[in-house]
Amino acid sequence: MSAEGTFSGGIDLKIDLQARGVRIPDGLRSRVGGAGPADGITIFLDGVPASVPSGAWYACRSPYEIRHSGESWELLLDGVGVCGLDVAGEPEYYREATPDSIPYYKVALRHGRDGIGSTVVQGCAHGDDSCRFCAIAVSAGSGETVPRKSPEDLARVAAAARLEGYSHLVLTTGTTPGEDRGIEPLLRCAAAVKGAADMKMHVQFEPPGDLEYIDRVAEVADSVAINIESFDREVLTVMAPGKAATGLSRYRQAWERSVEALGEGHVTSFIIIGLGESEESVLEGCRLLTSMGVYPFLLPLRPLAGTPLEAWSPPGAEEMKGMYEKAAAIVAGSGLHASTCDSGCVYCGACTAFTDITG
């Protein structure tokens, strides 16, 4: 990594770590599987949260390493100390269990600085057309979670996490059959949590057949994500066939309805970098989203074990810096800011450096 980065040293370091991963000592645990970035560890660089790959094949070869340094932790590059850092510890609520003896960590995991997240339905109706980068099925088969979270259990976990200072909850789901596309179970869980814990709520879903479902989500959610993943049509057809079949028009309708219900800056869409997309497709996607008041959430591909992309590499640091810089200019011109959103992935920002750049 060049000493002269496009951004501040801390942001450059975060980008490089997410591109190359980090080796960790025995005793530090990586998350396995999941709907989003996994096989990683959460660290804090000068207080800034960063989710960094630590379980993938490329992370095992990384020049970066985390070691104990007295009572704290140190980051090394090729054996030379780079900086001190903090490693996110396991929450106290992980030690608790539901009345049915389900450990709380199998219901909702900690994310970033002060968030928890849960995949309500651990499966996907798209079947063979499921997203090639998603590891929902991996975590479902690992025993690290339960196939379907009950509203009552999520409410219990959220209440316990809130007592520890966790302030927001991310609820996502594998797509289900029917026009709600998984929104109904999300609504039941969100309502139960709202009744048990004073937490901000972020809900992720695919465009429903009936847009009135979005109005119902807005009654319990503070922010939402409707993630298209790529604006390169050819790439989306290969990497997320189910989403490609849904079509951009339906996504646009869902984004517009969500902004209408929740306000500009409280709706986001993931754009994954590293799937083979053209640069222009990313920038055109950013222009489209920001024109509607939707925050484009750029993040690097995290190839996950057990998925068709497990042998892939994430995009390099220089590629990500260039993409971040161009996309950030579009966001800045739109007047959107990451700080507008008070819950969910944009608020957290651990899995990308984009929110650190756009402010």
Topology, pairings included?
Elements: H1 9-20, E1 40-45, E2 48-53, E3 64-69, E4 72-77, E5 80-87, E6 109-111, E7 115-119, H2 136-142, H3 151-163, E8 168-172, H4 183-196, E9 200-204, H5 212-218, E10 223-225, H6 233-239, H7 241-246, H8 248-262, E11 267-273, H9 279-291, E12 295-300, H10 317-334, H11 344-348, H12 354-358
Parallel strand pairs: 7-8, 8-9, 9-10, 10-11, 11-12
Antiparallel strand pairs: 1-2, 1-5, 3-4, 4-5, 6-7
Helix pairs in contact: 1-10, 3-4, 4-5, 9-10
Structural class computed from helices and strand pairing: alpha/beta
Largest sheet: 7 strands, mixed
Number of distinct helices: 12
Low-confidence stretches: 1-5
Gross morphology is: globular
Which structural traits does this protein have?
five-stranded antiparallel β-sheet, 359 residues, seven-stranded mixed β-sheet, alpha/beta, single chain, 18% strand
Describe it.
The protein has one domain: Alpha-Beta Barrel (TIM Barrel). The radius of gyration is 19 Å and the shape is globular. Helix content is 34%, strand content 18%. The relative contact order is 0.14. The protein starts with 8 loop residues before the first helix and ends with a helix. With 359 residues, the protein is α/β, with parallel strands linked by helices.
In a few lines, what is going on in this structure?
The protein has 359 residues and is α/β, with parallel strands linked by helices. Helix content is 34%, strand content 18%. α3 packs across α4 and α4 packs parallel to α5.
